[in-house]
Amino acid sequence: MSLLSIFRRKTFARGVHPASNKSTAGTPLRRLPFAPRMILPLAQHIGKPAVPIVAVGQEVVRGQLIARAEGFLSVPIHAPVDGVVEAIELRPSARGPWTESIVIRTYEASTQEVRWGTPRDMDALSAQEIIQAVQDSGMVGLGGAAFPSHAKLTVPKGRKIHTLVVNGCECEPYLTCDHRVMLERTDDLMLGIRYAMRAVGAEKAVIGIEDNKPDAVEAVRAALPADGSIAVAAVETKYPQGAEKMLIKSALGLEVPAGGLPSEVGVVVNNVGTLALLGRLLPLGQGLTERAVTLTGPGIKRPGDYWVPIGTPLRHVLEWAGAEDVSEREIILGGPMMGQAIASLDVPITKGVSGILVFDRRAVKAESDRSSYACIKCGECVQACPMGLNPSMLGLLAGSSEYELMGSRYHLGDCFECGCCTYVCPSNIPLVQQFRAAKSVLRQRAEIAKAKIEIHESGERFDFGHAEGEERKTGGRRHPVPETKG
Amino acid sequence: MDTVLGVTMAGGFMAALGAALAWLLAVASKRLHVYEDPRIEEVESLLPKSNCGACGTAGCRNFAEELVAGHTEPARCTVNSSDMNEYIASVLGVDMGDVEKRVARLACAGGRHVARMRAHYAGLGSCRAATTVAGGGKACDWGCLGLGDCESVCDFNAISMNQYGLPVVDPSKCTACGDCVEICPKGLFSLEPVSRKLWVACKNHADGDTAALQCEVSCTACGKCVADAAPGLMRLNNNLAAIDYSKNALATSDVIARCPTGAIVWMDSGRATRGVAAKKIVRISALPVASEV
């Protein structure tokens, strides 16, 4: 067994191999200067939006709490700059809907140093207190999902966690911010892993890093503690290795049941960027005010990895990185596989943005203008789907609007929209796009069914459409929620 | 002789077995009989069998059961003609009921000749899919994307897309089944009784200046309609005019007269009339894409 495992490459079944294009891996992380105006949406995370505790006209200090968490599945927001609150109003967000945001006008003398926060002795804290400290720091999964970290570290009742899996795969092409963080903030990362292990009660931790980053593997290995509780697993470079269920399979050989959470097999997964920042912020008692973001793509003159203050408008970042004719570019927030194409340059960089990719529109146009053809039943998508679904069948059903069947018989709910099926399809069928649309219909139906039941119980007749006078304040629509991935 | 006996016995045995089983079935059919009102079958045959769900039940059979049970009234079927509903009422010996005709109405007038796009959308041609990509690229995040999900979902061909990329509802074909209400990712459709003639054809909640930049026919929340309307009929809610339909009787076409953009309209038999002060729009070509708005 041990002899055989030497030859077994750590990986998962299926998946794809897109060109990595990680040209920015060699440049150190740099700082981005403050923008004259910062925009902080109250809903940057999954869960309930934060509630502002500052008033228009109030002065704020970098690191100061400006919006508190509303309930358990919510995180607070901290001021990224010294400045004055200019407005609390609707602003466009990267996903589309206008959302309530706090706008701060930056003082010119605002420093990069964070003076807010009360240092604390982390060793004296219990698991519950660590989780509370994580929530107070406003931390969310920085891999892209923006799921509140404290909720992830809270183990469901009756489950026991044996291993903390640390996600350093960064399987998305182009992105290198986690890579740089592993090289430059190795000690913070080790501290963060310790805190997370104590929070979930895990005895072991495994750091999964794709084997195209040998320098990161070396750097992290050199910093491992002597007691052997933390190990590094070099996993195969393959997309989507950084999806949490894939990484658990690769690093530990465990399979999470369909529709289940990693805690069902005794595992919790966290991103390296998240843990490295937790390792720095928790002892200082500070909040999340900046994150590492990869700025790259053919349309950028000074590509590289930057510490970007949360709330910096995209236009400011692009100006600083030397992007020209921005209106003639195709811009994606996140990675090229699962990222979000944006429609406005006035959207802010939020907690969940791991990369900004700027492509030449003409180069992209050739791809997007390719027509799509009928399914030839080649099975490429079935060979690519890491979740073992049948995208070809799902695509046919989506074409005839059989959404219920997709959800019940073909496990659409297990699709995490990695896009492998669309990537390999020789007929260029927009499969993952159809699945996203189908999921949004199913989600809405479930909400209506729930409302119907509630109304039925209250004895009134259900009526379609919106109640009189009920106006959507923030757009109210929900959007597909991607899973954590690195 | 033995052969004859054998054949007779076999035949007799089979006949006896048949008789016994027939008796069993006869008893079972009497004992286990479930009475079903024959009128359900009859009423179902009079229903349109479109199973659209507009009546609020799971389908035509379900509606027939509810009708016979007296839980609902024939007029709830919006697909049948009123003559047919009257006939059903006479068959059942009940009152036809009085249900006001409702039609699907779109709360947006921002066709591509008046509403700006801030980015090109080049993906799958469906409003649902477009909404998942940064809201679809329209400057107004609340507005109609014009990719026609409603047109394709309508079973009655009541919706057609016009030259500006806006869905137009034919009130004579619309049965108020609610399919377009469900499919529209921006939630722009609602089923409105035809007596509601005053209508705000906009959902833009951005402040007035931004809204005016985004779309020439948006509500800029200037408040003129609120000033001109009977007290309590109109109000401003988050930068958007809203109508209190419980005071619908007070609505007159004077309310729309001073609307500068024509966002508030007077609907009569499917046609929207804009106020006299509304800016005249002569452009028919699409506005260029502008990333600044």
Automatic annotation (TrEMBL), chain A:
Binding site for [4Fe-4S] cluster 1: 375, 378, 381, 425
Protein topology in the membrane: Peripheral membrane protein
Keyword Cell inner membrane: yes
Annotated compartments: Cell inner membrane
Cofactor: how and how many bound: Binds 2 [4Fe-4S] clusters per subunit.
InterPro entries in UniProt: 4Fe4S_Fe-S-bd (IPR017896), 4Fe4S_Fe_S_CS (IPR017900), Ion_transpt_RnfC/RsxC (IPR010208), Nuo51_FMN-bd (IPR011538), Nuo51_FMN-bd_sf (IPR037225), RnfC_N (IPR026902), Soluble_ligand-bd (IPR019554)
Domain 4Fe-4S ferredoxin-type as annotated: residue spans: 364-396, 406-435
Region listing for Disordered, in residue ranges: 462-486
One CC-aspect GO term: plasma membrane
GO molecular function, one term: 4 iron, 4 sulfur cluster binding
Primary residence: membrane
Positions of [4Fe-4S] cluster 2 binding: 385, 415, 418, 421
Cofactor(s) the protein needs: [4Fe-4S] cluster
GO biological process: electron transport chain
Domain of life of the source: Bacteria
Family, as annotated: Belongs to the 4Fe4S bacterial-type ferredoxin family. RnfC subfamily.
Entries under NCBIfam families matching the protein: PRK05035.1, rnfC
Record's protein name: Ion-translocating oxidoreductase complex subunit C
